Amino acid sequence: GVQPCVLADSWLDDTARRRLWGALQERLRRRFRPVLESCRIGAAKPQPEAFACALRALGAPPHEV
């Protein structure tokens, strides 16, 4: 089967537009599991650790991706 996830390069937003980003994140979290954000996992795309974290969250070995 196919198991999608979201791997986003995001940051903590303290601007006036943070409500828009928060609403988008909420929609993504309702539709996808997991939603991984670079600010929370400590790695950003294209760093290999970001993709390794996504694989661990999905429980998938690299050869299946």
From TrEMBL:
UniProt cross-references to InterPro entries, sorted A to Z: HAD-like_sf (IPR036412), HAD_sf (IPR023214)
Alphabetized UniProt keyword annotations: Hydrolase
Membrane-spanning intervals of the chain: none
Superkingdom per UniProt: Eukaryota
MF annotations from Gene Ontology: hydrolase activity
Identification of the protein by name: HYES hydrolase
Species name: Agelaius phoeniceus
Lineage: Eukaryota, Metazoa, Chordata, Craniata, Vertebrata
Gene from which this protein is expressed: Ephx2
